[in-house]
Specification:
This protein is α+β, with helices and mostly antiparallel strands. The chain folds into three domains: 2-37, no CATH class; 41-193, Galactose-binding domain-like (Jelly Rolls, Sandwich); 201-468 and 507-530, Alpha/alpha barrel (Glycosyltransferase), CATH 1.50.10. It has 16 helices and 18 strands. Strands 1, 2, 3, 4, 5, 6, 7, 8 and 9 form a nine-stranded antiparallel beta sheet that branches. It is globular and about 80 Å long.
């Protein structure tokens, strides 16, 4: 009995997120079985009531009490609580807004009522108002996949219950049974997040860009859970391709964080060769490119060397998928992003470009490993791949990669494809690489306008995190995600979507959409990391901005920069650098 009790306590310690070591009295056996949490939990009161099933005061009494910050502790003499009263004809419900997308669940506290039996409540979490008001299934495709968002719980008399583990901003509560009186003291969101400082920052004369930078940072922050996830509602998995924009954002905002290495190692160990990571050949290439990026930023040679045997074997495997015409013939999942997935010409063009970038990065890594023969070998593979020029691609995603791989002229790509039809036919994932290609073409004003219109378009619809996908054409005659959709307007969340993100299954917090955060710091603040993090070149591109300033985490500490446009158009730059960091202009 004693051992069982200790085991339960150990599990509770981990569940409650206590990072301290277990007490010595627990014993070595229990301590070895305990998995400590790296997460922090806080409780949030709702910011507003969005909807009530009754406005007469007969079935919902004192709803404003839920908006008052409490102490989390019930008492036997509580009065003036929020009351839900059900009859055969009316089962009351209420929709709460917590003000911002969060990850976690809800803690419900119920006071004293005449009947001591538990009360059944239906809970519906939603990333949008529409999702929280929806039913499972149907044309809008609301689901309980990956994380439960629609279920019934029993709340105890004079007690609390904490349930849920998903991404949400809104919560609908309904009484299930008739003739119930439900006195609730509080309905608090249990917000679970990683308590880490924002070392990077960005501010400029354009408040819209500032909001976009911070929203991208927060989107990735929420997905930094036990591992680096793609989304907090779904899929809550380590998808390696999705990780690349996320890692660039982490480099920019949080610096050298262990969750990146932990997630990369998990993907490597879960997919021993000849498997492709996540079953997708391009995702194995992204794994290698991420390793090159984090070495370039942080210079952790010891960690890079841990990947040596796998990395060499991966490069050799990739090299076996090139035909006599120097064309990639990769198998497995042939995937870039969802909008291009049904366009073979785009997929091939993107994969060909990725193969070039991967072997160039692999050649540079072999130089770091001090393996000159392998450096030469993989460099020649990249040269071979350059001899094949993919044709008939018209997608912005593949065109951007071709420009970044120097398979096509960046300015030509920008003029003929990237700028065509504005921000139509973009994707939140490959939007980052479109911005990178525009920067390579020197079109900083154009890239800033893309950020304002495309990512800003999500903010205009009430977003507090960036989405798995966004089609600018869907914004015509649509309502906001934080309001009940009028009958004469589309629901931007429920009425649209393709592939894996149909309707409410669509994730509204997806880390791969955070590209502008890394892009603005690198290209507008002009912070270019060099020599494995030993040097920073400051080369700002303000575009049409009057000023921009911010901070950036380096291996030596935080670098602060400030740029101001003078009357004659020249830029005045000031900076504060940590000791040990070399800064060049």
């Amino acid at each position: 009995m004693k051992q069982n009790t200790l085991f339960i306590i150990a599990v509770l310690v981990c569940t409650l997120g206590l990072n301290a070591q277990l007490p010595p009295s627990f014993g070595k056996d229990v301590s070895q079985r305990a998995r400590p949490s790296e997460m922090t939990k806080v409780y949030l009161t709702p910011s507003k009531v969005i909807w009530k099933s009754d406005n007469t005061g007969q079935f919902l009494i004192n709803p404003e009490q839920l908006l008052k910050k409490g102490n989390g502790q019930l008492a036997v003499n509580e009065n003036n609580l929020f009351q839900l009263k059900s009859t055969q004809e009316h089962k009351p419900g209420i929709l709460l807004d917590y003000g911002k997308e969060i990850h976690g669940g809800v803690k419900i506290a119920m006071g004293i009522k005449k009947d001591k039996s538990p009360v059944k409540l239906r809970l519906r979490f939603g990333e949008s108002v529409g999702e929280a008001m929806s039913e499972i299934g149907g044309e809008t495709n609301a689901t309980n996949e990956h994380s439960m968002r629609d279920f019934i719980v029993e709340v105890p008399w004079l007690g609390t219950i904490e349930v849920g583990e998903t991404g949400f901003r809104f919560l609908r509560i309904d009484v299930i049974e008739a003739n119930q009186e439900v006195p609730l003291k509080s309905v608090e969101a249990a917000f679970v997040y990683r308590d880490i400082p924002y070392l990077g920052s960005f501010n400029s004369s354009d408040e819209r860009l500032n909001d976009i930078w911070l929203t991208g940072a927060y989107t990735v922050h929420l997905n930094m859970q036990d591992y680096l996830w793609d989304g907090i509602k779904r899929d809550r998995l380590v998808w390696v391709g999705d990780m690349h924009p996320e890692v660039m954002t982490i480099n920019t905002v949080f610096g050298n964080h262990d969750i990146v290495r932990k997630s990369l190692d998990l993907a490597r160990d879960q997919h021993p060769l000849p498997q492709w990571m996540n079953g997708i050949s391009s995702y194995s290439m992204w794994w290698l490119l991420i390793h090159k990026n984090i070495y370039d930023y942080h210079g952790d040679l010891e960690y890079l060397k841990e990947q040596e045997s796998y990395m060499i074997a991966l490069l050799d495997q990739l090299a076996s998928f090139i035909d006599k015409d120097n064309k990639e013939i990769l198998d497995g999942g042939r995937f870039m992003d969802w909008p291009t997935s049904e366009i073979p010409e785009a997929v091939h063009a993107g994969l060909q470009a990725m193969m070039v970038m991967t072997f160039e990065a692999g050649s540079e890594i072999m130089e770091i490993y001090e393996k000159p023969e392998l450096k030469k070998k993989y460099g020649k593979v990249a040269e071979r791949l350059r001899k094949h020029k993919p044709k008939d691609n018209t997608t912005k995603q593949a065109a951007a990669l071709m420009a970044l791989a120097d398979l096509e002229d960046a300015q030509k790509i920008n003029t003929n494809i990237l700028k065509k039809d504005g921000v139509e036919r973009m994707s939140t994932f490959y939007g980052y690489y479109i911005l990178e290609a525009m920067a390579k073409a020197g079109d900083y004003d154009g890239a800033l306008n893309v950020i304002r219109e495309y990512w800003g378009g999500m903010l205009d619809l009430g977003a507090t995190t960036f989405w798995e996908d966004f089609d600018i054409l869907d914004t015509k005659n649509t309502g906001r995600i934080d309001e009940l959709s009028p009958a004469n307007k589309f629901d931007i969340h429920g009425d649209f979507g393709e592939y894996c993100y149909v309707g409410y299954r669509h994730s509204l917090c997806h880390g791969w959409a955070s590209g502008p955060t890394a892009w603005l710091s690198q290209h507008v603040l002009g912070i270019n990391v060099m020599d494995a993090g030993e040097k920073i070149e400051i080369k700002p591109n303000l575009g049409n901005l009057k000023w921009a300033k911010g901070s950036f985490p380096t291996k030596y500490g935080v670098l602060k920069v400030s740029h101001t446009r003078n009357a004659d158009g020249t830029i005045k730059t000031e900076y504060e650098a940590p000791d040990g960091l070399t800064v060049i202009q």
